[in-house]
Design a protein that fits this description.
mainly beta, about 50% strand, Neuraminidase, 16 strands, four-stranded antiparallel beta sheet
Length: about 240
């Protein structure tokens, strides 16, 4: 029996859906240890299935699939232990949502970052599941035009998601940090002109964030590429670029 899902933080009800079989083709899977980032480099394709995964370093693997039936989208979450399926839940709340990255904290909680489309506006969202499969909370960033690409959680359970935003006059990389209960803490944007793609996120034992950002100026074919690792303090200050 699938765990019962709690109401969404945003006020949109989450449907409780019967469990579905986990025998799905995994189009692209990257795994990371607890506290590190995981992301799918390819954007989800409508009409198909793609997935990401993360593990807790103790033998438990979470797989996350984007599903689309031609009209409705949903996100399926599975927990695999000792080679067998422990539980599966499916998240669908009436909005178009696509998971892009996943991370696991030291207690086994799963965090999923992705893109939500609501009335043609695109926002980054973050969901949290307990190790037992209970849907704990979902929050959404308030910046329109942003697509998530990475998420990480530090030793204290503070989680940061990020991606690139498409504003009228700029294309910055955007980071949004929350505490362990998904209460908002800070936002930071990195803009060096051109398009600033967030390629990965990780956090060290002190909570310092390491964000790998690729800036592309000009055309994709013959433009200028620059990749840096931007270090942010736990309080959101840009400390260094390497």
């Amino acid at each position: 029996k699938a765990p019962v899902m709690a109401p969404s933080y945003q006020g949109t009800p989450n449907a409780t859906i019967p469990p579905v079989k986990a025998a799905l083709a995994l189009a692209a899977v990257l795994t990371a240890s607890a506290g590190a980032f995981t992301f799918s480099p390819n954007s989800p394709q409508e009409g198909g299935e793609d997935g990401i995964s993360a593990h807790d370093g103790k033998g438990t693997i979470y797989t996350v699939y984007n599903l689309f039936d031609g009209r409705n989208s949903s996100i399926q979450v599975n927990r695999i232990m000792n080679g067998g399926l422990a539980w599966t839940v499916e998240h669908a709340d009436g909005t178009r949502e696509k998971a892009a990255a996943a991370a696991v904290d030291e207690e086994g909680n799963l965090y999923i970052a992705g893109e939500r489309t609501y009335y043609k506006e695109k926002y980054m969202f973050l969901m949290k599941y307990s190790p037992s499969g209970a849907f704990i909370r979902e929050v959404a960033d308030n910046a329109d035009g942003c697509r998530a690409s990475a998420v990480t959680v530090d030793k204290e359970g503070w989680v940061t998601m990020g991606g690139m935003c498409k504003y009228p006059r700029s294309r910055p990389a955007r980071l949004v940090k929350y505490d362990a209960d998904l209460n908002y803490y800070w936002t930071a944007e990195y803009d060096r002109g051109g398009r600033n793609y967030l390629r990965s996120l990780s956090a060290d034992a002190r909570g310092t964030l390491f964000s790998v950002i690729e800036t592309i100026s000009g055309d994709m074919g013959d433009g200028v590429y620059r990749t840096v690792t931007a270090l942010y303090s736990p309080e959101g200050r840009l400390e260094e670029e390497r």
